[in-house]
Amino acid sequence: HVQLVESGGGLVKPGGSLRLSCAASGFTLSDYDMTWIRQAPGKGLEWVSKITSSGGAKYYSDSVRGRFTISRDTAKNSLYLEMNTLRVDDTAVYYCARNGGTFDPWGQGTLVTVSS
Amino acid sequence: EIVLTQSPGTLSLSPGERATLSCRASQSVSNSYLAWYQQKPGQAPRLLIYLASSRATDIPDRFSGSGSGTDFTLTISRLEPEDFAVYYCQQYGSSITFGGGTKVEIK
User: Fold this and answer.
1) Residues of chain B neighbouring A104 (CB-CB closer than 8 A)
2) Sign of CA dihedral B39, B40, B46, B50
3) Using CB atoms within 10 A of its CB, is residue B82 exposed (0-12), middle (13-18) or buried (19+)?
4) Angle at B78 between CA B11 and CA A43, to 5 degrees
5) Which has fewest Cβ within 10 Å: A34, A114, B54, B73?
6) CB < 8 Å from A in window 45-74 of B
7) CA distances in angstroms from A21 to A4, A52, A71, A107, listed in the order given
8) Looking at chain A from residue 39 to 98, which residues have their Cβ under 8 Å from any Cβ of chain B?
9) B97 near A47, Cβ under 8 Å?
10) Is B96 close to A104, i.e. CB distance below 8 A?
11) How far apart are CA A32 and CA A75, in angstroms?
C-alpha cells in the first residue's frame, strides 16, 4: 500500500526554523520526483518545492527560495523540508506528494503555524 | 506562468444533479497536461483526472474530464453525497500551477 506520512509541523515564532519529514512506504522514494505543496488556512494549493528522482536537481517557488531546502534520505525512504527564516505567511498545511507531473498520492499533511 | 481560473467559485446543487466545473488557462496547456483533484474538509487532495480526460485509479466513471488548449471541464454526471467537496485544476505543461478551486455544495 503506497503511503506518505508527514510530521514535524507545529507553532514557531517569526524568524524561526522547522524541519518537516515525509516517510514513504509501499514504494521507493528515490524512484520518483517528490514535491512539497502547501495550503494556507481556507486558501488554495501552492507548489513549494521539488526534488528529482536522481536527487540531482531541486526547485523552489519564488516565495521560499533561499529560505527552504528540500532533501531526502534514501536509506530512510524519507523526504524533508528544512524551513528557515519563517514568516507569518508561511502558515499552512504542508503536504508531500509523489510527483509524476500530477501529484499522487499525497500525505495527510502537517500544520505549520508561524505566529508570535 | 500559466494562470488557471476556475468557475464558478461555488456551485450549489442537489444529489443526483449534474455538475459542470470550468478551468480556463491564461495560455495554452501543452499536451493537455491538465489534472483535476478533489479535496474534502480536513483531507488531502485526491487525484481524479490527468491528461485532461483520463480517470485516475479507482475513480468512478461519473467523473469525466474534457477540453484542450485553454478551456477544460470537469463533469460529475450525477452527484453522490460524497462528491460535495472542493475541486482544483492543475496544469503541468509549463511548471506547475493550480486553479483557485470550485466548491460544490449541497443546495
Assistant:
1) 46-47, 56
2) negative
3) exposed
4) 35
5) B54
6) 45-47, 50, 56
7) 10, 17, 10, 11
8) 44-47, 95
9) yes
10) no
11) 15
